[in-house]
Write a structure and sequence with these properties.
Elements (H helix, E strand, L loop, with lengths): L8 H12 L5 H14 L3 E7 L1 H5 L7 E7 L2 H4 L4 H9 L3 E9 L2 E11 H7 L10 H4 L4 E5 L2 H22 L6 E2 L1 H14 L7 H22 L6 E11 L2 E11 L2 H32 L3 H13 L7 H5 L1 H14 L5
Parallel strand pairs: 2-4
Antiparallel strand pairs: 1-2, 1-5, 3-4, 6-8, 7-8
Length: about 325
């Protein structure tokens, strides 16, 4: 694994302002408060991410939350088998919904222990599933105490540095923040069963561009490579503008090792994605319909399922997988 330098104070400040400066709407805050009342003190933090955060409305789609918990044993005190599943293949994913006035919030929330959060966002974790998620802009809606807040801050910062360190050798020697970020998202998506196409990356960049440019600039000194900045002037319709361009000195051997690592991540990640889908069929109410809805939303591919398969989600996933692959819904 790469030896990653210490997190810079500038990167920490950007992540802190971006993640902890978000103010949830009254409806979303009440939804989170209801979850906290349900699970009590075992929850150490709640992280909000995904399409609803990007759109600014929790009613547009399915709200994506992560519940960072003390440990699985205390969180699942009455369901030890769920604690085992969460430990052996995190995260477990659940569904919840609630009405606020005449509107309804629908959410899926994933459960991850603080120990796993710290470990799986760091440079010692080969699998990209977690650090490729938490490197992106998120909002922390709740933290139990200052210790929990600090742990989340460091985990988010380490996700960024781990993500960029594992992506940079796979880019051109000269690159922009957009080149680096979009290459990283594309490669991390390829390591999962993700239906998103190129247009999804374009939308994500439009949403994330302003903060990502700051994050990349602050993270550059934290990366284990020699990188310098080059200002290049580009002509656009409105006139001239300065685009920040970077140059990285990375050996060809290191670049080949990086590409080989991502080839292995694709095999590992797709295998684990199938296992997570099978596990979610036990924990996620309406899991089959949700998976098919998400695939249709991102790829336009629609697949009909019988009532029988809805009642038997594991069988449904096994039978639908070849159809989804043949139609290009997942790659």
């Amino acid at each position: 694994m790469l030896k990653v330098p210490a997190i810079s104070s500038s990167l920490m400040a950007i992540i802190r302002a971006q993640a902890f400066g978000y103010r949830a709407s009254p409806a979303l805050q009440k939804f989170v408060d209801d979850l906290l009342r349900q699970y009590g003190s075992s929850v150490k933090a709640v992280i909000y991410y995904g399409s609803c955060l990007q759109s600014g409305s929790e009613f547009d789609s399915l709200v994506d939350l992560y519940l960072i918990v003390e440990d699985y044993k205390s969180f699942y005190s009455k369901r030890p088998w769920l604690a085992f599943l969460n430990w052996i293949l995190p995260p477990n994913v659940f569904y919840a919904e609630a009405d606020y006035g005449d509107r309804r919030i629908r959410a899926k929330y994933a459960v991850l222990s603080m120990r796993d959060f710290r470990r799986k966002t760091g440079e010692s974790t080969f699998q990209s599933y977690f650090w490729a998620r938490f490197c992106q802009p998120v909002a922390v809606l709740y933290w139990r105490d200052n210790k929990a807040r600090k742990s989340i801050e460091y985990g988010l910062c380490h996700s960024v540095v781990t993500f960029l360190s594992n992506i940079l050798p796979c880019t051109q020697a000269e690159f922009t923040a957009k080149d680096l970020w979009c290459t990283g998202l594309r490669m991390s998506y390829s390591a999962e069963l993700r239906p998103e196409g190129p247009e999804r990356l374009s939308r994500l960049w439009i949403y994330q561009a302003s903060v990502v440019k700051k994050i990349v600039s602050a993270a550059i000194p934290c990366l284990p490579f020699k990188i310098c900045r080059i200002d290049k002037r580009k002509q656009v319709v409105e006139g001239a503008r300065v685009q920040q361009v970077y140059y990285a000195e990375i050996s060809m051997v290191r670049r080949q090792i990086c590409r080989a690592a991502w080839w292995l991540r694709r095999i590992q990640g797709k295998t684990l994605s199938v296992m997570r889908l099978a596990k979610a069929a036990w924990t996620f109410r309406g899991g089959v319909d949700y998976i098919l809805w998400k695939i249709k939303r991102h790829s336009g591919v629609e697949v009909e399922v019988s009532p029988f398969l809805r009642r038997h989600p594991i069988l449904a996933m096994l039978m639908l997988a070849p159809r989804l692959f043949s139609k290009g819904a997942v790659k």
